[in-house]
Amino acid sequence: AGFSHGMGRRLSVVLAALHDPAVLLLDEPFDGVDPIGVEATMAVIADARSRGACVLVSTHLRELAVEACTSVSVLRRGAQVAKMAASEMTGEDGARAYRGLLD
Fold it and tell me: Of 37, 47, 60, 87, whose CB has the highest number of CB atoms within 10 Å?
C-alpha cells in the first residue's frame, strides 16, 4: 500500500514473470515508471525472451515498444492496422509512419 504507482508497476512485472510463464503479457508496463524502472522492466523482458517465452507488450510508448520488441502490431479502435518489424518504427521516419497509422 505504501508503494508509488511506478513501484507498484515494477512489482507487478516481476510477479508476472516470477514463475517463468511461456507467455508474458504486459499491459502498459512503463506507465509511471522511472528510468531505472524502465531498465529493470527491459531486463525482465529480455530474460523472458532469452528463455524462449513469447512476450506481448501493450504500450502507447512507441520508443520503448521498439526497444523491447522484435515485431510491432498497431491497433486502432481494436483492429490491427499494421504489423511490421520493430526496426521499421525507429527514428523520425518510424515516428511519422506511426502517427499516420493512428490518424
Answer: 37
Grid cell at residue 82? 499494421
| CA distance linking residue 85 with residue 28, whole number of Å | 20
Q: How far apart are CA 49 and CA 52, in angstroms?
A: 5
- Considering the entire predicted model, what is its pTM? 0.81
71's enclosing H/E stretch is: strand 71-76
Residues 6+ apart with CB under 8 A from 93: none
pLDDT, tens only, 33-72: 999 999 999 999 999 999 999 999 998 888 898 899 899 8
Q: How far is CA 22 from CA 11, 12, 82, in A?
A: 19, 17, 25
Residue 56 CB partners (closer than 8 Å, separation 6+): 23, 24, 25, 26
- The C-alpha cell that represents 68 in the structure block: 523491447
